[in-house]
Amino acid sequence: MSQMNILITGAGGFIGQALAAALVREAKAASITLTDVVEPAAPKSLRTTVRCVQGDLASQELCDSLLTKDLTHVFLLHGIMSGAAEADLDLGIKVNMDATRKVLDNLRTVTPGVRIIFTSTTAVYGPPPMPGFPLTEANAPCPGSSYGAQKLISETLLNDYSRRGLIDGRIVRLPTVLVRPGKPTGAASSFASGIFREPLNGQKSVLPVSKDLSLWICSPRTIVQNLLHARDIPTEAYQGGSRVVNLPGVTVTIKEMLEALKAIGGQEALELIEERRDAPTERIVKSWPTTFDTLKGKQLGFAEDGTLAQTLKDYIEDYGTDKT
């Protein structure tokens, strides 16, 4: 494609903002439209037209204005996160399923064949058959949360629309993104960023799960790099029909995360962590698999992540702390 016109939904979120900034830096797109329920901030750009639109994707009027025939790429990042989707089933269905289907049905009519990059989650799987079992895209999902179920339903729709040639979908299952800047989110994994972000800012943070639990994580820099890569993969590279890819990540225990915090922020930062177990959060987190065989993703050229120590250094470099 000689000219890219890109739409990002959920663009007010941290990944949406980081992706928009990366798109502006590479200067390949003629236009970028950012939309969210709160008007997203626009990255500074001298060469790319950037438009920011506030609105609800449930509105047909908004869809008519955003989903135009000149679009070449759409990043579907909008969503109600895991903890919030579990707490409010109807809201999760409305945002994670209904809004996604509405966007897809409009796009397949208005701009058939448009390339769509959909961010899904490894929470579609539920608990692995045994601890440490390395899951692949061939393993059958069985979500242990409403969020995982809603994402899986949307994955199925994107796969089918791609099979029929209505769209050109790319489904990337994200690890837990670490470290997220800003305020805590509705994700059950929000604590994973909070136990770094808040102590490094001299603030207290609550650890709601056991130190023995593990997470499958990836840094923001690598996530954005891989979203851009998903956009550029030739359609013919997706052999076998499925557009699903488990993105590379790193398995770490909560204990290892706390050790990394101490190495970066010292004992002072570590002492700002308050252990206060929360059963609903722990139940959701326990349902997530933590070991993956990401051969498919590597064969497609997706980047592997670095060490946890490097991730923390990158976070401080990119976002700073109240002490820097």
Describe the overall structure.
The protein is globular. The mean pLDDT is 93. It is built from 11 helices and 12 strands. α1 links the parallel β1 (4-9) and β2. The strands form 3 sheets. It has a 7-stranded parallel sheet with strand order 3-2-1-4-5-6-10, with helices on both faces. Helix content is 41%, strand content 18%. It has 324 residues and is α/β, with parallel strands linked by helices. α4 (89-110) packs parallel to α5 (146-163), α6 (190-200) runs parallel beside α8 and α8 crosses α11 (308-319).
Summarize this structure briefly.
Helices cover 41% and strands 18% of the residues.
Search tags:
324 residues; alpha/beta; three-stranded mixed sheet; 12 strands
The strand count comes to: 12
Report the major sheet. 7 strands, parallel
Alpha plus pi helix count: 11
Helix/strand-derived category reads alpha/beta
What layout of secondary structure does this protein have?
Elements lengths: L3 E6 L4 H13 L2 E8 L12 E6 L5 H7 L6 E4 L5 H6 L1 H22 L4 E7 L24 H18 L4 E7 L1 E2 L12 H11 L4 E3 L6 E5 L1 H13 L11 E3 L3 E4 H17 L2 E3 L3 H8 L8 H5 L8 H12 L5
Parallel strand pairs: 1-2, 1-4, 2-3, 4-5, 5-6, 6-10, 7-9, 8-12
Antiparallel strand pairs: 9-11
